Amino acid sequence: MINPQFVKQIAANISYWQQVTANLSDTTMAKIDREKQNLFRAVSFGLIPDETILATIELIIALFPLVERRVYWQEWLPILDQTLNRCPNNQAQLKIQLLNQIGFLRRLARQFPESIAALEQAVSLAKIGKNEEELATAYFFLGNVYYDDAQHRLSENFLQKAQAAFAATGLLQDDKKQAAVHNLIGLNAQSQGAHSTAIEAFEKAISHWKKTGERIYLCRTWNNLGLSYLALGEFTAALDCFQEAELVLTSTVSTDERIRIAINRGQAYYDQKQWAEAEACFRQAEAYLQEQRGSLFHNALIYNNLAAVLLERNCLKEAHDYGQKSRDLWHSLGNKLMAANALGVLGEIAETQGNLASARQSYQIALKQLAPFETNPWANQRRQELRRKLNRLNDER
């Protein structure tokens, strides 16, 4: 039996954190960064006594925006798993919310099978309980998972299901829901090369985000819009979008979003062959990453981009080191498309160094790994580039 006095202390601690996190402002988030371990310890203890379980679960669910924005995913997921196990069977609503959050964060951690499993469980429970709002959320999160996993037909299918479920609840007219839906429509269109459709969808999303005060999501959508302009070669429009994204972040603590902006701005300069400016942006992204741990996805992307720009600047040793780091990280994340691209960059570095046998081997393996992505426009373009390089090397034999 747990000491009653200890239970009172746990309850008081949970109550304290409920008050601290009632308004998750940037100031509050910065404070929690400094006291993060105390918060984690409080919720871990709060899950032990039966008397504090429900209050603790409600606190954990309320902390979701903080966990997402401050990139606490890996540390928080074990707590969510523990919370799900301790959640009373008669609290179906809380279970569904926890499963949706687990699915969302596992997607961010690039754990797609685990994410899908959690969200499918949320769908089943929501259907049983006729909980249309959480059902719509689960469908929408599944749409995001399949988008991230480059399964665009499935993503669009679940997006349609989410729209229907949101409509059934009357929530489809909510600005946040409208913005999120249009953003995902834009992302799927963008990934399939339909940039005019993507731009229209992103602009609609931006107009809705502006009404909500959701600066982080507004920033992300400006970034997405800029990437479509970048793909069309409209560099001024792209850089303007990245500038808008940066302005949205004024006085916020979201380092992860600043990383995205620096990467995208660097890509705009890279595509214009402004190597020094591109390198400066990628170095800035790397500095942000060291200041506040970002996602492994961004880590791998920064390494990849630095390898590419350092190759152009003939800094071959450093380019090779970054290229290897990028390839290894993409492999660890299970991202076969980007791992193949990184291998292609290593082949280009080897060719420039005069190591033609190594370059030829890298190109051959990269081309084989890119083959399954025949519906991805960017993968097709990259495959054509590497095929030309390999053919040239073979002709010179």
Describe this structure in words.
The protein is an all-alpha fold and 397 residues long. Among the domains are: 119 residues, Tetratricopeptide repeat domain (Serine Threonine Protein Phosphatase 5, Tetratricopeptide repeat); 103 residues, Tetratricopeptide repeat domain (Serine Threonine Protein Phosphatase 5, Tetratricopeptide repeat, Alpha Horseshoe). It has 20 helices and no strands. The longest helix is centred in the first third of the chain and has 21 residues.
Spell out the blueprint of helices and strands:
Blueprint: H1 4-20, H2 26-46, H3 53-62, H4 64-69, H5 73-86, H6 92-108, H7 112-128, H8 132-148, H9 152-169, H10 175-191, H11 195-209, H12 215-231, H13 235-248, H14 255-271, H15 275-291, H16 296-312, H17 316-333, H18 336-352, H19 356-370, H20 377-395
Helix pairs in contact: 1-2, 5-6, 6-7, 6-8, 7-8, 8-9, 8-10, 9-10, 10-11, 10-12, 11-12, 12-13, 12-14, 13-14, 14-15, 14-16, 15-16, 16-17, 16-18, 17-18, 18-19, 18-20, 19-20
Which properties best describe this structure?
397 residues, mainly alpha, Serine Threonine Protein Phosphatase 5, Tetratricopeptide repeat
CATH class of the domain at 174-292: Mainly Alpha
Q: What's the main sheet like?
A: none
Cα radius of gyration in angstroms: 23 Å
CATH level-four homologous superfamily name of the domain at 174-292: Tetratricopeptide repeat domain
Distance between the termini: 79 Å
pLDDT averaged over residues: 92
CATH fold field value of the domain at 174-292: Serine Threonine Protein Phosphatase 5, Tetratricopeptide repeat
Instruction: Give the SSE order as H and E letters.
Output: HHHHHHHHHHHHHHHHHHHH
Structural class: mainly alpha
Poorly predicted runs: none
What share of the residues does DSSP label as strand, in percent?
Answer: under 5%
Q: Percentage of helical residues? A: over 70%
